[in-house]
Amino acid sequence: MAEIKSVSKNAFGRMVLDQYVDPSTGQIEVRSAEAIFGTGIKGDLLAISTGKNWKLVDPEGFRRRYNNNQTTQGLKTVSKEEFERLWNTIGVPAMNNDRAAVLNNPENYDSIEISEGNRAAFYQKNIPGIKDPKTGLMVSSTGVKQTLPTQEEQTESEDTTQNSGGGEEEDKKPTFILGESQETIDQTILAAGKDKGGKNETLRYPLDPSGPFEYDYIKITAYDYKPSGLDNDYNPDKNIQSASGGIGQKYETVVLPMQPTLSETNGVSWSNDQLNPIQRAFGEAAAGTIKGIGDMNVEEIGKALGNLGTDIKKAFGDSTTKSFVTAYFAGQAVGANLVGRTTGMVINPNLELLFNGPNLRSFNFNFKLTPRSADESVVCRKIIRAFKRNMAVSRTEADLFLLSPRIFKLEYIFKDKTVHPFLNKFKPCALTNFAVNYTPDGSYATFNQDGGMTQYNLDFTFSEVMPIYAEDIPTDGDTMGY
């Protein structure tokens, strides 16, 4: 598995930093943002960690970049001692969290076996935030192994205190980062809406506790929605990122079998446009006049108006078009088609099909759930409830604003291992429509044990929150692309 890159924003003095995490060694590199986006050229190496300890490779260069960023934001610069203190108290914990999020994710390894083996080794190396896949023990933020399984530690002094949503309790509190403006803090407080619940758990249908699962399936995971902001950021996952640039808070992951019809439709918007010769003449004059005003060039304005006068004079002097031009302007004055009535001619519209912009893709899915046991019936209920809750809007604490619903990341998985190489990928999607039919066979039927329905029919409509660009489609390689 190649190293994984993420972009960290606002995690340390509102700087933009590139992070490279190697799942084979556990090493993380912090570099300056690459000079030319998308080239793959790495920025300057600023800090590195292979375990729990960090090394500032270029402390003076790092501090200079930090202070330059502070000056740009209208904030105070810091001394060498203050910079080192801030790095150790703010920067290192943020980077450790980002690295742990990558290394603890089994999807970032080539197989489950490699994932478990590497994570166990990282746990022995005391890499902060790493959880042992066998015992559930976690390395604390200070690089100390726990003595009890994570789920048994519930004291406030432990780093692993969990809330009902499956994330750390601290994640629910507004985080005020060094260098944040009052406007950013206000937005953080505003975003702290009422808790809509949800857990970081996997709900699988059909339920088969024996495993492993050797069939292909679709995986749908809910995330908190992050607004795009005003940056020119085309990262496909920007709307599900955390404040530090890694993947944000994850909620329910629903695993469903492949349905019979899988398709995608890519579209762009084109429309008819006309520009007749008279419109062209006035358009050229207007463009020239505007350019002259912008450049404060009186000669340019006069030239544009002179060209317009010449074109009109030429049109009226031509015996073929004189009657047409007269009828055209008379028709514009009274709002009637005098051209056709008086000349029997139609002006050349210079009709063209012009590009308007991209379209957003939508995907429709239909799944029929038929519980075969009491446990599977409970899972079906949880699946339906999770989709209904995650797609719903929530209110702020003061009930003054409504917050965006959560969005979803969809993936076609090949034999429970990797993203399917011969099916399309998805950018994060909003669930715009979700319909549940509790009696899909046209009759009401329940199980005697608990009243669960014998069948459910689920209809989904997902819409991607970002369009597809040419750069998202590979020219070669072993994936289908978006």
What would you note in describing this structure?
- This protein is 29% helix and 20% strand.
- A five-stranded antiparallel β-sheet has the order 1-2-3-4-5.
- Helix 5 packs antiparallel against helix 6.
- It is extended.
Strand order of the largest sheet: 1-2-3-4-5
Structural class: alpha+beta
- Overall geometry comes to extended
Distance between the termini: 21 Å
Main β-sheet: number of strands, strand sense, barrel status? 5 strands, antiparallel
How many β-strand runs?
17
Mean pLDDT: 79
**What number of structural domains do the residues give?**
3
Strand residues, percent: 15-25%
Helical percentage = 25-40%
Poorly predicted regions: 149-191
From the alpha carbons, calculate the radius of gyration and give it in angstroms.
30 Å
If helices are DSSP runs of H or I spanning 4 or more residues, what is the number of helices?
9
Strand-helix topology:
Blueprint: E1 4-9, E2 16-21, E3 28-32, E4 45-49, E5 54-56, H1 59-72, H2 80-103, H3 112-124, H4 182-191, E6 202-204, E7 217-223, E8 250-257, E9 268-273, H5 277-295, H6 298-317, H7 319-334, H8 338-343, E10 352-358, E11 362-369, H9 374-390, E12 394-395, E13 402-403, E14 407-414, E15 418-419, E16 429-437, E17 456-464
Parallel strand pairs: 6-8
Antiparallel strand pairs: 1-2, 2-3, 3-4, 4-5, 7-8, 7-14, 9-10, 11-17, 12-13, 14-15, 16-17
